[in-house]
Amino acid sequence: DVKVTQSSRYLVKRTGEKVFLECVQDMDHENMFWYRQDPGLGLRLIYFSYDVKMKEKGDIPEGYSVSREKKERFSLILESASTNQTSMYLCASSLLFAGLRSSYNEQFFGPGTRLTVL
Amino acid sequence: GENVEQHPSTLSVQEGDSAVIKCTYSDSASNYFPWYKQELGKRPQLIIDIRSNVGEKKDQRIAVTLNKTAKHFSLHITETQPEDSAVYFCAASSPGTYKYIFGTGTRLKVLA
Fold this sequence. Notes:
Structural class of chain B: mainly beta
Mean pLDDT of chain A: 91
Mean pLDDT of chain B: 94
Number of helices of chain A: 0
Strand content of chain A: over 45%
Distance between the termini of chain A: 37 Å
Oligomer: heterodimer
Order of helices and strands of chain B: EEEEEEEEEEE
Largest sheet of chain B: 6 strands, mixed
Structural class of chain A: mainly beta
Low-confidence stretches of chain B: none
Distance between the termini of chain B: 41 Å
Number of strands of chain A: 11
Shape of chain A: globular
Protein backbone atom coordinates (compact mmCIF):
# COMPACT_ATOMS: atom_id res chain seq x y z
CA ASP A 1 0.00 0.00 0.00
CA VAL A 2 1.27 3.44 -0.92
CA LYS A 3 1.67 5.61 2.08
CA VAL A 4 2.02 9.36 1.89
CA THR A 5 2.30 11.09 5.24
CA GLN A 6 2.35 14.73 6.20
CA SER A 7 3.99 16.08 9.32
CA SER A 8 0.93 17.77 10.84
CA ARG A 9 -2.84 17.54 10.43
CA TYR A 10 -3.42 20.98 11.93
CA LEU A 11 -1.08 23.94 12.24
CA VAL A 12 -1.61 27.45 13.55
CA LYS A 13 0.99 30.10 12.80
CA ARG A 14 1.30 33.87 13.06
CA THR A 15 1.70 36.30 10.19
CA GLY A 16 5.34 36.64 9.21
CA GLU A 17 6.45 33.28 10.61
CA LYS A 18 8.43 30.84 8.50
CA VAL A 19 6.44 27.64 8.07
CA PHE A 20 7.64 24.21 7.01
CA LEU A 21 5.25 21.52 5.80
CA GLU A 22 6.79 18.09 5.39
CA CYS A 23 5.68 15.21 3.19
CA VAL A 24 7.13 11.71 3.10
CA GLN A 25 6.25 8.83 0.76
CA ASP A 26 7.41 5.26 1.10
CA MET A 27 6.86 3.91 -2.43
CA ASP A 28 10.02 5.14 -4.15
CA HIS A 29 7.98 7.53 -6.32
CA GLU A 30 9.92 9.96 -8.45
CA ASN A 31 7.23 12.66 -8.64
CA MET A 32 6.00 14.66 -5.68
CA PHE A 33 3.49 17.51 -5.63
CA TRP A 34 2.17 20.20 -3.31
CA TYR A 35 -1.41 21.45 -3.74
CA ARG A 36 -3.59 23.81 -1.83
CA GLN A 37 -7.30 23.13 -1.57
CA ASP A 38 -9.79 25.94 -1.11
CA PRO A 39 -13.60 25.76 -1.31
CA GLY A 40 -14.83 26.43 -4.84
CA LEU A 41 -11.29 26.47 -6.26
CA GLY A 42 -10.50 22.78 -6.24
CA LEU A 43 -6.91 21.58 -6.04
CA ARG A 44 -4.33 24.04 -7.26
CA LEU A 45 -0.74 23.01 -7.88
CA ILE A 46 1.88 25.02 -6.02
CA TYR A 47 5.11 23.18 -6.91
CA PHE A 48 6.15 19.76 -8.06
CA SER A 49 9.37 17.79 -8.25
CA TYR A 50 10.29 14.91 -10.54
CA ASP A 51 13.66 14.13 -8.99
CA VAL A 52 15.87 14.95 -6.04
CA LYS A 53 16.85 18.62 -6.07
CA MET A 54 14.60 19.24 -9.10
CA LYS A 55 11.54 21.44 -8.83
CA GLU A 56 9.10 23.18 -11.12
CA LYS A 57 6.57 25.88 -10.42
CA GLY A 58 2.94 25.02 -10.57
CA ASP A 59 0.05 27.41 -11.05
CA ILE A 60 0.33 29.37 -7.79
CA PRO A 61 3.98 29.37 -6.60
CA GLU A 62 4.06 32.94 -5.28
CA GLY A 63 4.88 33.08 -1.58
CA TYR A 64 6.08 29.47 -1.48
CA SER A 65 9.30 27.56 -2.00
CA VAL A 66 10.12 23.85 -1.86
CA SER A 67 12.98 21.56 -1.03
CA ARG A 68 13.69 17.99 -2.09
CA GLU A 69 16.95 16.77 -0.66
CA LYS A 70 15.91 13.11 -0.51
CA LYS A 71 13.71 11.14 -2.87
CA GLU A 72 11.11 10.29 -0.25
CA ARG A 73 10.73 13.77 1.26
CA PHE A 74 9.29 16.96 -0.21
CA SER A 75 9.00 20.10 1.90
CA LEU A 76 6.85 23.14 1.31
CA ILE A 77 8.14 26.38 2.82
CA LEU A 78 6.21 29.56 3.49
CA GLU A 79 8.99 32.11 3.93
CA SER A 80 6.75 34.68 5.61
CA ALA A 81 3.26 33.37 6.26
CA SER A 82 0.32 35.60 5.42
CA THR A 83 -3.38 35.27 6.24
CA ASN A 84 -4.23 34.51 2.60
CA GLN A 85 -2.16 31.34 2.90
CA THR A 86 -4.68 29.90 5.35
CA SER A 87 -5.74 26.73 3.55
CA MET A 88 -5.66 22.95 3.35
CA TYR A 89 -2.34 21.74 1.93
CA LEU A 90 -2.15 18.37 0.23
CA CYS A 91 0.94 16.48 -0.80
CA ALA A 92 0.87 13.79 -3.48
CA SER A 93 3.31 11.43 -5.17
CA SER A 94 3.38 9.34 -8.34
CA LEU A 95 5.65 7.18 -10.43
CA LEU A 96 7.59 8.81 -13.21
CA PHE A 97 6.60 6.06 -15.64
CA ALA A 98 3.69 3.93 -14.51
CA GLY A 99 3.68 1.56 -17.44
CA LEU A 100 1.50 -1.44 -16.75
CA ARG A 101 2.12 -1.47 -13.00
CA SER A 102 -0.67 0.85 -12.00
CA SER A 103 -3.15 3.38 -13.22
CA TYR A 104 -1.38 5.72 -15.52
CA ASN A 105 0.59 8.13 -13.33
CA GLU A 106 -1.92 7.83 -10.49
CA GLN A 107 -1.26 10.43 -7.83
CA PHE A 108 -1.48 9.24 -4.22
CA PHE A 109 -2.39 11.88 -1.70
CA GLY A 110 -1.42 12.51 1.89
CA PRO A 111 -4.03 13.28 4.57
CA GLY A 112 -3.53 17.04 4.31
CA THR A 113 -2.40 19.79 6.66
CA ARG A 114 -4.93 22.45 7.61
CA LEU A 115 -2.89 25.60 8.11
CA THR A 116 -4.32 28.65 9.80
CA VAL A 117 -2.33 31.89 9.71
CA LEU A 118 -3.44 34.45 12.28
CA GLY B 1 -3.46 28.40 -19.78
CA GLU B 2 -4.84 24.91 -19.52
CA ASN B 3 -8.14 24.68 -17.76
CA VAL B 4 -10.67 22.09 -16.62
CA GLU B 5 -14.23 23.21 -15.93
CA GLN B 6 -16.45 21.02 -13.77
CA HIS B 7 -20.23 21.15 -13.30
CA PRO B 8 -22.29 21.18 -11.22
CA SER B 9 -20.61 22.45 -8.08
CA THR B 10 -23.22 20.74 -5.90
CA LEU B 11 -25.56 17.89 -6.68
CA SER B 12 -28.25 16.30 -4.53
CA VAL B 13 -29.90 13.04 -5.55
CA GLN B 14 -32.23 10.57 -3.91
CA GLU B 15 -30.74 7.25 -2.89
CA GLY B 16 -31.02 4.84 -5.81
CA ASP B 17 -31.04 7.55 -8.46
CA SER B 18 -28.19 8.24 -10.88
CA ALA B 19 -25.71 11.12 -10.68
CA VAL B 20 -23.76 12.68 -13.54
CA ILE B 21 -20.83 15.07 -13.21
CA LYS B 22 -19.40 16.75 -16.30
CA CYS B 23 -15.97 18.20 -17.07
CA THR B 24 -14.59 20.10 -20.04
CA TYR B 25 -10.88 20.48 -20.76
CA SER B 26 -9.06 23.04 -22.89
CA ASP B 27 -5.83 21.27 -23.91
CA SER B 28 -6.58 19.06 -26.93
CA ALA B 29 -3.36 17.13 -26.21
CA SER B 30 -4.73 15.83 -22.88
CA ASN B 31 -4.74 12.05 -22.90
CA TYR B 32 -5.47 10.90 -19.36
CA PHE B 33 -8.52 11.73 -17.26
CA PRO B 34 -8.72 10.53 -13.65
CA TRP B 35 -11.58 11.02 -11.20
CA TYR B 36 -10.91 11.40 -7.49
CA LYS B 37 -13.34 11.05 -4.58
CA GLN B 38 -12.75 12.92 -1.34
CA GLU B 39 -14.88 11.96 1.62
CA LEU B 40 -15.27 14.45 4.44
CA GLY B 41 -11.99 14.83 6.32
CA LYS B 42 -10.21 12.28 4.15
CA ARG B 43 -7.64 12.40 1.37
CA PRO B 44 -8.64 12.33 -2.32
CA GLN B 45 -8.55 8.83 -3.77
CA LEU B 46 -8.65 7.66 -7.37
CA ILE B 47 -11.93 5.92 -8.21
CA ILE B 48 -11.74 5.56 -11.97
CA ASP B 49 -9.70 6.85 -14.88
CA ILE B 50 -9.78 6.78 -18.67
CA ARG B 51 -7.22 7.21 -21.40
CA SER B 52 -7.89 9.07 -24.62
CA ASN B 53 -7.88 5.92 -26.75
CA VAL B 54 -11.01 4.66 -24.97
CA GLY B 55 -14.50 6.12 -25.14
CA GLU B 56 -16.00 4.56 -22.03
CA LYS B 57 -14.93 2.63 -18.96
CA LYS B 58 -17.07 1.00 -16.28
CA ASP B 59 -16.36 -0.31 -12.82
CA GLN B 60 -19.45 -1.67 -11.09
CA ARG B 61 -21.72 1.33 -10.39
CA ILE B 62 -19.41 3.97 -11.78
CA ALA B 63 -18.54 4.76 -15.38
CA VAL B 64 -16.66 7.45 -17.21
CA THR B 65 -17.28 8.55 -20.79
CA LEU B 66 -14.97 10.63 -22.95
CA ASN B 67 -15.80 12.71 -26.02
CA LYS B 68 -12.48 13.85 -27.49
CA THR B 69 -14.09 15.91 -30.23
CA ALA B 70 -16.06 17.98 -27.74
CA LYS B 71 -13.23 17.82 -25.17
CA HIS B 72 -15.45 16.70 -22.38
CA PHE B 73 -15.74 13.72 -20.08
CA SER B 74 -18.31 12.67 -17.52
CA LEU B 75 -18.64 10.56 -14.40
CA HIS B 76 -21.79 8.48 -14.05
CA ILE B 77 -22.81 6.88 -10.76
CA THR B 78 -25.81 4.57 -10.86
CA GLU B 79 -27.92 3.31 -7.94
CA THR B 80 -26.42 5.91 -5.64
CA GLN B 81 -25.93 5.07 -1.98
CA PRO B 82 -25.32 7.31 1.06
CA GLU B 83 -21.63 6.34 1.05
CA ASP B 84 -21.31 7.94 -2.39
CA SER B 85 -21.72 11.32 -0.67
CA ALA B 86 -18.39 13.12 -1.13
CA VAL B 87 -16.60 15.72 -3.22
CA TYR B 88 -15.60 14.47 -6.66
CA PHE B 89 -12.77 15.99 -8.68
CA CYS B 90 -12.04 15.45 -12.34
CA ALA B 91 -8.59 16.07 -13.78
CA ALA B 92 -6.77 16.07 -17.10
CA SER B 93 -3.15 15.31 -17.88
CA SER B 94 -1.14 15.69 -21.07
CA PRO B 95 1.69 13.59 -22.56
CA GLY B 96 5.15 14.44 -21.31
CA THR B 97 3.88 16.06 -18.12
CA TYR B 98 3.19 14.51 -14.74
CA LYS B 99 0.88 17.29 -13.75
CA TYR B 100 -2.87 17.13 -13.40
CA ILE B 101 -5.15 20.07 -14.00
CA PHE B 102 -8.03 19.58 -11.58
CA GLY B 103 -11.59 20.74 -11.86
CA THR B 104 -13.11 22.75 -9.03
CA GLY B 105 -14.99 19.80 -7.56
CA THR B 106 -18.60 18.64 -7.20
CA ARG B 107 -20.15 18.06 -3.79
CA LEU B 108 -22.52 15.11 -4.16
CA LYS B 109 -25.15 14.50 -1.50
CA VAL B 110 -27.14 11.29 -1.61
CA LEU B 111 -30.36 11.70 0.34
CA ALA B 112 -31.68 8.64 2.11
